[in-house]
Amino acid sequence: MKKRTLLTAACLLTAALIAGCSGNTSSSQPEPSSVSAETTAIASLESDVDSSPEQGDETSEDVETSQTSLENEEVSDSDADRKSALVRVGSLKGPTSMGLVFMMEMAESGKTENQYEFTMTTAADELLPKLIGGEVDIALVPANVASILYHQTGGEVSVIDINTLGVLYVVSGDTSIQSMEDLKGRTVYMTGKGTTPDYVFQYLLDVWEMAEDVTLEFKSEPTEIAALLTQQPEAVGVLPQPFATVASIQSDANVSALLDLNKEWEKAQEKSGGKSRLVTGVTVVRNDFLAENPDAVSLFLRDHEKSAAYTKEQADHTAELVVKAGIMEKAPIVKAALPYCNITCISGLEMEEALRGYLQVLYDQDEKSIGGALPDDGFYYHE
Question: If you ran DSSP here, which 8-state letter would residue 378 be given?
Fold first, then answer.
């Protein structure tokens, strides 16, 4: 009976998961295929960009040295005593999965204490039932969806880390735009009406008391905004990564990412006295798996932190791994986008503080966006 209830919750959450993705459509009732369509759209945009190889800053010796260093970090006595386990990890194609690719390589080479089985899906309706049905133990999902999942399942999941901070950027060819205040009197094109990108931008406008001074026009796909900016470089769009990078490097488009909404969020928090961060993706674990395998979860956190760090240190090799994993098709574009995807691994009290504040902002915008209530302390896992 319990499993049937949880599977029903998974079905109800599918639309919410899609709505929580930064690059989804603006429809109030998004189709389950929209995440898959986004992956296709990324591939389409990539095909318009020159894919000739770039000369990387890293030599093969640099990659080997860094990789060896990360592989051979000292293992503490407590780590050595931990029992390895099979951990099934699920994720959606996109920036959140990019932070896993080094872990995938290490697992494939037998260089992790845990055994890992990775499932990457292009559609949200494939991932949630696997998590709730027990086919996946750990999953990387949008932050607001984790909260909805917690409420709908009666607290059957916990957040163990933040895997991606904000991926939204203001993109335009008008270089006079240097701050949120410079958007006064402008029309801003974006996707995701009634979803987290909308709530995030509305929050920023509210903090700067600009809600009446900016016109928001919603498009169904990021590719529409990219095309519009190509034709009208003076226009202003809000795009998630990797769309923002792809739009910026298209040969015929004189546009660039002018505002990082992570930084604008930090300014807004300073202005309002808050301590949250702009969060895109979090990692959740099924609590029954956590109860039976606490050591395996601790090892996952260690491996995830190492893998996220590697994406920042070794962009060339990470780009190759992202292509190998089938997340994107062209390594030069991956390498260009990686620094702006804000891949991270934040756990413990720092994770809780950042996520609590972010969910509070969403709750204040629309309580339904996080499941109707702020999650209680049981939502946040600390080792």
Answer: G
CA atoms within 13 A on the CB side of 34: 25
Q: Which ranges of 29-183 would DSSP assign to H, the alpha helix? A: 34-47, 60-71, 77-80, 95-98, 101-108, 124-132, 143-152
Say whether pLDDT at 26 is over 90: no
Which pLDDT does position 43 carry in this prediction? 52
Q: What is 2-166+277-379's CATH topology?
A: D-Maltodextrin-Binding Protein; domain 2 (3.40.190)
Cis-peptide into 242, omega within 30 deg: yes
User: Into which CATH architecture does domain 172-272 fall?
Assistant: 3-Layer(aba) Sandwich (3.40)
For 120, the enclosing helix (H) or strand (E) is strand 115-121
| Averaged pLDDT for residues 179-207 | 94
**pTM of the entire structure?**
0.82
Closest to 306 (Cα-Cα) out of 104, 76, 64? 104
Mean pLDDT for 278-289 is 96
Enumerate the β-bridge partners of residue 237: 171, 189
**Per-domain boundaries in the chain:** 2-166+277-379, 172-272
Rounded CA gap, 334 and 97, in Å?
12
pLDDT digit string, tens, across residues 319-368: 999 999 999 989 999 999 999 999 999 999 999 999 999 999 999 999 99
Q: Do domains 2-166+277-379 and 172-272 have the same CATH topology?
A: yes
Q: Using CA atoms, how far apart are residues 32 and 15, in angstroms rounded to an integer?
A: 7
pLDDT in tens, 218-239: 999 999 999 999 889 999 999 9
